[in-house]
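pasting for ref
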Amino acid sequence: MTRYFFTRLAGAVPTLFIIITLTFFLMRAAPGGPFDQEQALPPEIAANLESAYGLDQPVWVQYGRYLKSLLHGEFGPSFKYKDFTVTELIGQGFPITLQLGLMAMALALFVGVPLGTFAALHHNSAADYATMSLAVVGIAIPSFVVLPFLGLLFGVYLLWLPVAGWEPGSIRHLVLPVLALALPPLAYVARITRGSMLEVLRSHYIRTAFAKGLPLRTVIVRHALRPALTPVASYLVPAVASILTGSLVVETIAGLPGIGRYLVQGAINRDYTLVLGMVIIYSTLLIGMGLIVDLLYAWLDPRVRFAK
């Protein structure tokens, strides 16, 4: 297991390197630049700005300089946020994005798994059909539609929660964004858990456990839940990707100062270093989540063994 972990960890480095390289050159290939405005700058000022940020040098020279700065743990200066480096912007916004994502993922798992299990135990009943119908609705409606609806209901009509904005340490400002962000993965988790649990409950060892007179709770918790969660573990990487991409929209709509809005604004403004920094953060999270999921298999299913 340890050897497998470090092998996968070593394989993640070239993957991240390829992502950085592709993003770097694709950003440069896109039309426009970080200093393009509706009213064109005088040629002298534009030339001075490009010289100050090294944009007047060949692309391969810029690429080498950027890789060198990454080796020193620096993402470079932001082209649009003049008084901040990309590292400072990430340090300000990442804790909020991380808190939002972790809460959404926790809600999706701690609600989706029991819902799926409940539906499986009441297979082909009205409760099963109602639960899965709600799951289909959760999958079909995107978060950028759910969030304004929740804001209208709980913020405007009922006046229970703030519609948008952010106050440090205030959980109330995160409730609606977390609900909107967690709804699609929660629905997927519920459906996957239901299908997997139905398959596990038909297994011979589960029938044997019931035949021995074990209570339903004991059979589910001790014998059926872990193997039933294996497909759910496979979905965790797409779930994290869904939450990360959804946070881009949700943070913008809710006015949260996370890193999602920096990626959107950086792409619009051609802020090369800011976009690259955000891509590196998101890619690292996805690659790390993939590694964690692979390691979860050994715990969820004892039959899984990694080649030495």
